[in-house]
Amino acid sequence: MGCDVAFAPQEEEIYPEPQEYKLHPPARLADILEGQVRPGFFTGVCTVVLKLFHAVQPDAAVFGKKDYQQLLVIRSMLRQLMLPIKLITAETVRASTGLALSSRNGYLTDAQRSEAAQLNSVLTKAVAEVKAGRTDWDKLEREASDALSAHGWLVDYVAIRRQSDLALPLTGDRLVVLGAARLAGSRLIDNLEI
Amino acid sequence: MGCDVAFAPQEEEIYPEPQEYKLHPPARLADILEGQVRPGFFTGVCTVVLKLFHAVQPDAAVFGKKDYQQLLVIRSMLRQLMLPIKLITAETVRASTGLALSSRNGYLTDAQRSEAAQLNSVLTKAVAEVKAGRTDWDKLEREASDALSAHGWLVDYVAIRRQSDLALPLTGDRLVVLGAARLAGSRLIDNLEI
Questions:
Q1: Which chain B residues touch A78 with a CB distance below 8 Å?
Q2: Is residue A166 within 8 angstroms of chain B, CB to CB?
Q3: Whose C-alpha in A149, B59, B128, B148 is 20 to 30 A from the C-alpha of A31?
């Protein structure tokens, strides 16, 4: 990949003993959406990212928009903990079908990978509706969720939120639509900024 | 003091916004003794020390034995968070009366400062008893506590613990005796390794 050095530690190097010190992010950012479906998830993310930062002492760190909530949680962590690290945001890379690339796609069969593109399609449709002027967020979210369910997905959430902190949108906020759903046992997430 | 540079930030520099990300130390170290009397105290200590470490990026940090529990909490934090900082331990500095030096002593009148030395005297007596072979920790702690109460102190705790993690002592453990008590509204702490 044109990379000079990769630090890819084994689990035992990062957790030589049970992790007892934990970095707790605030509930308003961390207990919603992904954190509601996976309690404690962002405490684990913050703690291990903090450890990696200490081990590597980087000048900059790249996080992708595909894990949109993680990006926001880490951005606030850097600021709140006075970490002198520049956060670089990377756009989501997609297949020609629109499917966001992810190591998890490897668990999908060809037929499932084809169906997986529906997640992006449904979010894209929601974006178009918002751009056309709709502001009935609840109904829009339900329509998107129902469209996935009709295709056999088990939907965790489809949510239209404001970009800055994923709170419920107020007039004038810049928006993002986020979705998480399971297809044949694989849990996929995606999002689109509006 | 022969120091070249001092970083002594104002509160607004360290907390420009409410602190929402917090470093939680484990209950076994942080919810006993000082943490039992002052709930959440070591979460605040760990969080602000972590921020200062990020701001300063020190090669080494000096912590005094007077705040013995804090020293243990910070030592484990360094290890568990993979912070590349050498911890240097400083012995407690004492007045000729045995009183551990502390900025808090400034709140005491001359008469109170004289009485304050009792805390060290009582701990010194407990050390002597342990060295003489006593292992009835509960009774020893109660005697020390009663001696302070008889002098008008309000005792938070006198505790004989093992040095490594402040757990209840087992045979062969290296010990430390710790005390915290209030004298005329000033809360003083001290400890002696055995």
A1: none
A2: no
A3: A149
**A93-114, pLDDT tens digit by residue?**
999 999 999 988 988 999 999 9
Helix axes A110-131, A137-150, angle to 10 degrees: 160
Contact yes or no for A100/A120 (Cβ under 8 A) = yes
Pairing of strands A175-183, A186-193: antiparallel
Give the pLDDT confidence of A22-33 residue by residue, as tens digits.
999 999 999 999
- pTM of this structure: 0.95
In the numeric block, the tokens 């500095």 are attached to: B93
- pLDDT tens readout for residues A167-178: 999 999 999 999
What is d(CA A72, CA A163) in angstroms, rounded to the nearest whole number? 9
Closest CA to B150 of B114, B102, B186, B183: B183
Instruction: Search chain A and give the residue with CA nearest B77.
Output: A21
Average pLDDT, chain B: 96
Which sign, positive or negative, has the C-alpha torsion B127, B132, B138, B140?
Answer: negative
Greatest Cα pair distance in chain B: 54
Structure ipTM: 0.95
